[in-house]
């Protein structure tokens, strides 16, 4: 029986591909490319997500259709995630809801101590992992065989949690001490505005700083979602832009005088 590993996000997928190569495994890998920690989720159909998340060069609807179809056909499923990542945890709950009744395994990396070798060749240890996406492939390779079965009760609980979030249909979902929670559209605005002052700063700088500050103790949001909020803050007059704010590497912003 062939194993198919399920992972949310290209960053985590790259590390898991490396892990499979290091371990010499010929398992399959399916990547869920949507980020369910942001945007409307009342309608989970791929077509509905595609309408909201339009991106040049990516056929979102067909990509999501293919993911769920291939997952339903796989023999043995292993879902990787970390509970301290909003993106990974949102996918974990949505998976339980979408795949209700299907048997699968999980590898939850949350809090694991993982020995790694960094890109510069030095050895180190991740003392308490937050997410799959922050663990290098050589670290993930040490976790094969640690998957566990998911009980029917756990699955039902996760399905109900996702149904509650779907009913909320909030713009964001963020990690809290009690699990994933709905958050309003302006949840990260104060953090973004705190990175600006009266001097011109590139949008990429504002977003980069906000990303760093929103990653401890939980990985809460991605750069694309923050970029959208910067654009909206410019449109609302909370930030002044010199250039097109959709061009994060060239446009500069500052607080109004």
Automatic annotation (TrEMBL):
Matching Pfam families: DUF1835 (PF08874), DUF3658 (PF12395)
Domain named DUF3658: residues: 146-251
Domain DUF1835: 5-91
Protein name as catalogued: DUF1835 domain-containing protein
Organism in which the protein naturally occurs: Rhizobium esperanzae
